[in-house]
Specification:
The protein has five helices and 13 strands. It is an alpha+beta fold and 217 residues long. A hairpin with a 4-residue loop joins β11 and β12. α1 crosses α2 and α2 packs across α4.
Length: 217
């Protein structure tokens, strides 16, 4: 049975609300067919990400400026592809969704990813997914404390594992508690999930707190 917890989260673009969450993080896919399908959605009709919540939206071609929420599994795949650099965040757009409106960033497909999917299209059949080793367990709630612009400390729930995230050009450098490089990510949220997977855990929900704004001297 899936365990549920309550957490305070921004309501889409604005006011905070209490929502039900599970202790299970985004599920990674190893199926090239799923990846190709999601990349296709990013190209047409287009996808957007609300950065403050991580919600992935699908553009509504019939109503420009409007979007609908993507299915949870597809949204997890978008997050996975953003983490690995196969997709990138683009410019900010004003989007209407579920009776609310606010900023969301477009999802871009780099040329290398388009070429990769094109190569798969010429394979018959598209390669079967490889089976990934099962993660040990969930981290629970991951805390990300942004202590100053471009620097955050990550605590992986109750696991005792911690790490550091540093802005590195247009991306974020992720380090373990010994300062060793874990990898690079597209955002603080993606960095937290990357650190969790590095330690063999399934990422739980991510809560980001900007301490440098709350306790500014």
């Amino acid at each position: 049975m899936t365990a549920h917890t309550q957490t305070v989260q921004g309501a889409l673009f604005g006011d905070p609300v209490t929502v039900e969450t599970t202790d299970h993080g985004p599920a990674a896919t190893q199926d090239p067919r799923e990846v190709a399908r999601v990349v296709g959605l990013a190209q047409d009709p287009g996808l957007f990400v609300i950065e403050r919540t991580g919600l992935v939206l699908r553009a509504d071609p019939a109503h420009p400026g409007c979007a609908d929420a993507l299915a949870r599994h597809d949204g997890d795949t978008v997050g996975q592809l953003l983490d690995t650099g196969h997709l990138r965040l683009g410019g900010t757009h004003h989007i209407h969704h579920a009776g609310s409106e606010g900023p969301a960033r477009s999802v871009l497909v780099p040329k290398a990813t388009r070429d990769m999917v094109s190569r798969w299209d010429h394979l018959r059949p598209i390669p079967e997914p490889t089976r990934a080793p099962a993660p040990q367990r969930s981290t629970g709630l991951i805390g990300v404390d942004v202590v100053e612009p471009g620097k955050a400390l990550v605590c992986l729930g109750t696991t005792g594992q911690v790490g550091t995230v540093l802005r590195d050009g247009g991306r974020y450098r992720v380090e373990n508690d010994h300062g060793a490089l874990v990898g690079h990510a597209s955002s603080y949220r993606a960095a937290a999930r990357l650190l969790a997977r590095y330690h063999g855990f399934t990422p739980g929900p991510v809560e980001i707190e900007h301490e440098h704004r709350l306790y500014r001297r």
